[in-house]
Every structure is written in structure tokens, then in C-alpha cells.
């Protein structure tokens, strides 16, 4: 049996990149026989950027609704809100005491924000972000963590700090996790390119996302605004350099993907036609999930009930792991 763990920040409704890159691969792993899945809403992490209480609560519900709408089985797995289990912050402190300041300064998130805004504008919360993420993983003895390529460094940091603690207090104090990266969904492209004409990762910070849980009208409008070049309908088009095609590959059947590829290369159709195909493919692929999402957002008590029950289950595991760590470090056992 493998214990799978993954989380997603509650900074808004998960977009297509989140769903294809994290939610669906996580659910797929959870459905493998004998796998044990821990999926959580990382609302503590969201505090590094969101300081509106009402928005934090709303984002948490929307994030949870997306997981549930996409089919996660809460009866079989663990589904909880990060802040409902404060033991994670205690473990974060222990990890901080075994990891160097200079190593944390090399974390991608801190380096990127520091370069952009200056170190004096970056919160200590963002600086310690990798340690909280490590605690998220280590608190449940997670063995496999599905991540995107850009999150691989965090797993390396998690293993590094766990190894240091194990060397000090003995093997088995903490379980070392492994990253699971799916090559085909490593990075989902956004709806526009960077100034150099290169693909960018779909991200809210780049304002280039597709929200599959928008209304039909808004969703279609987003798809129709996807950046394309100025080639006429008659001209052949390069699928490898086309955002619409790169997204279509992830949501349509192999037969439909081949049809779009042929249509682009042959010419004779405008980009509007291919964008309509993408819109229809998203609707077909996620139609049931969208209906379920809309229902859940109108019945938030159902979401809260599932999160509360999941936290009770997860807390029992967290308590066991944290007591093991406390005992080896030399603190009083509270069980």
C-alpha cells in the first residue's frame, strides 16, 4: 500500500491547469487498489497572499467543491482543510530548527518574489513556505506526492530536512516521500504567450487561466480570447506553436486531437473554429463535474460536513506521527 498526499492552495476556484495537473492525477492515484489518499485544502498557505477573511472562506469552499466535483471519494480517502489540524504548525517549527536560513533563501518562490518586489516586501510566511509544505507531507507519513515540475524542489527540501532529523534522532522518525510527476501534464499552457512568444504556464498570477466552472457564456468568452497569430483561415498553421491545440490535447479524445492537428496543418479553417472545438471539448469532458460544482456551491453545509469529518480522520494520523516525533526529540508524550 502507498500513502498518497497532495494539496492545493485555496486562492480561488481551481483552473484547468490545477485540475489537469493536480486534481485529476491525484484522484487517479487514489483509485489504485491499496493506495491511501490524503487530499487537503491548503488554506494556511493562502494567507501569504490573501488577507480577506470572507475571501479565504469562499476560496476554501470553492477549492473543496472542485475536488468533490471531479470525483474524489471522501469515504475511501482523507479530505480535509489544512487549518483544521494545527499540529501541522507545530511540526513546521521542529523542521525550521533543522533547516538553514541560507537554504530557504534558495527556494524558488522566495527568490522569485524577492527579485520582483525586494526582500523587505516578502513576508516571513512566504520565506517559511517550504517548511510548512514539508510539514504538510511529513505529518501523515506520506510516501508519494503528485506534483508539477515547478514543485519538485519542495519535495527535495522535504526529503532533505527529514533526512537531517532522522540522522539526529534515528531512522523512521520521519518518512521520506517521493515526488510523482506525470510528464503529460507537467505544465498546462496558459491562454497567452510571454512577450518573447513562448508558452507560459497557466497561472492566476499571469492572468491566463481557463475556469471550467464559469458559466457557459463566460467560459466560451475566455476560450475565444486565447491568443493566436495573424494567419488567415486559408493558411496552414503550426500545431506545435498553437495554444488552442496544446490545450485541446489534454481534454479531447485522441481521434479529435488528430482531427484538429490535420485541420491546422491543412488550412482552410479560421482559429475561431478550433476555439469552438476546444470549448465544446471542455464542456463534454467536464460537464458532470461542472453541474456538481454548481450544486455544492449552493449547498456549502454539505462541503463543511465532509471537511469536518475528513479532518477528524486525518487528525488521528497526524497525532500519531507528531507524538512519535515529540518523543524522539525529547518532549512530553501527550497521548
Series of H and E elements: EHEHHEHHHHHEHEEEHHHHH
Radius of gyration: 21 Å
How much helicity do the residues have?
A: 40-55%
Strand order of the largest sheet: 1-2-3
Report the count of strand segments: 7
Taking the sheet with the most strands, its summary is: 3 strands, parallel
- Average pLDDT confidence is 93
> Any idea what the shape is?
globular
Count of helical regions: 14
Question: How far apart, in Å, are the first and last alpha carbons?
Answer: 27 Å
The stretches of 5 or more residues where confidence is low (pLDDT under 50) are none
Secondary-structure-based class equals: mainly alpha
Strand content: 5-15%
Q: How would you portray this structure in words?
A:
The protein is mostly helical and 335 residues long. 54% of the residues lie in helices and 10% in strands. The protein has 14 helices and 7 strands. A 3-stranded parallel beta sheet has the order 1-2-3. Strands 4-5 form a two-stranded parallel sheet. Helix 1 links the parallel strand 1 (3-9) and strand 2. The longest helix is centred in the last third of the chain and has 30 residues, at 300-329.
Amino acid at each position: 500500500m502507498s500513502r498518497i498526499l497532495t494539496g492545493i492552495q485555496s486562492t480561488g476556484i481551481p483552473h484547468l491547469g490545477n485540475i489537469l495537473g493536480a486534481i485529476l492525477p491525484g484522484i487517479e492515484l487514489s483509485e489504485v487498489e491499496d493506495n491511501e489518499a490524503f487530499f487537503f485544502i491548503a488554506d494556511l498557505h493562502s494567507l501569504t497572499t490573501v488577507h480577506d477573511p470572507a475571501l479565504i472562506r469562499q476560496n476554501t469552499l470553492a477549492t473543496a467543491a472542485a475536488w468533490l466535483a471531479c470525483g474524489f471519494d471522501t469515504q475511501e480517502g482523507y479530505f480535509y482543510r489544512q487549518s483544521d489540524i494545527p499540529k501541522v504548525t507545530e511540526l513546521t517549527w521542529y523542521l525550521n530548527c533543522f533547516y538553514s536560513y541560507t537554504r530557504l533563501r534558495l527556494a524558488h518562490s522566495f527568490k522569485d518574489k524577492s527579485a520582483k518586489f525586494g526582500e523587505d516586501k516578502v513576508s516571513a510566511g512566504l520565506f517559511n513556505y517550504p517548511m510548512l509544505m514539508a510539514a504538510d507531507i511529513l505529518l501523515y507519513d506520506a510516501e508519494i506526492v503528485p506534483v508539477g515540475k515547478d514543485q519538485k524542489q519542495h519535495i527535495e527540501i522535504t526529503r532533505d530536512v527529514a533526512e537531517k532529523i532522522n540522522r539526529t534522532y534515528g531512522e523512521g522518525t520521519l518518512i521520506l516521500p517521493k515526488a510523482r510527476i506525470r510528464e503529460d501534464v507537467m505544465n498546462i499552457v496558459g491562454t497567452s504567450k510571454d512577450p518573447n512568444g513562448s508558452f507560459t504556464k497557466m497561472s492566476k498570477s499571469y492572468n491566463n487561466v481557463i475556469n471550467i466552472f464559469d458559466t457557459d457564456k463566460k467560459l466560451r468568452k475566455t476560450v475565444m480570447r486565447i491568443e493566436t497569430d495573424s494567419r488567415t483561415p486559408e493558411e496552414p498553421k503550426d500545431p506545435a506553436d498553437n495554444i488552442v491545440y496544446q490545450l485541446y490535447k489534454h481534454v479531447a479524445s485522441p481521434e479529435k486531437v488528430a482531427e484538429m492537428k490535420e485541420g491546422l496543418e491543412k488550412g482552410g479553417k479560421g482559429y475561431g473554429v478550433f476555439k469552438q472545438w476546444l470549448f465544446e471539448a471542455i464542456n463534454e469532458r467536464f460537464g458532470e463535474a461542472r453541474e456538481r460544482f454548481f450544486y455544492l456551491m449552493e449547498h456549502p453545509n454539505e462541503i463543511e460536513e465532509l471537511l469536518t469529518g475528513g479532518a477528524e480522520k486525518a487528525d488521528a494520523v497526524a497525532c500519531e506521527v507528531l507524538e512519535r516525533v515529540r518523543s524522539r526529540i525529547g518532549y512530553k508524550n501527550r497521548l
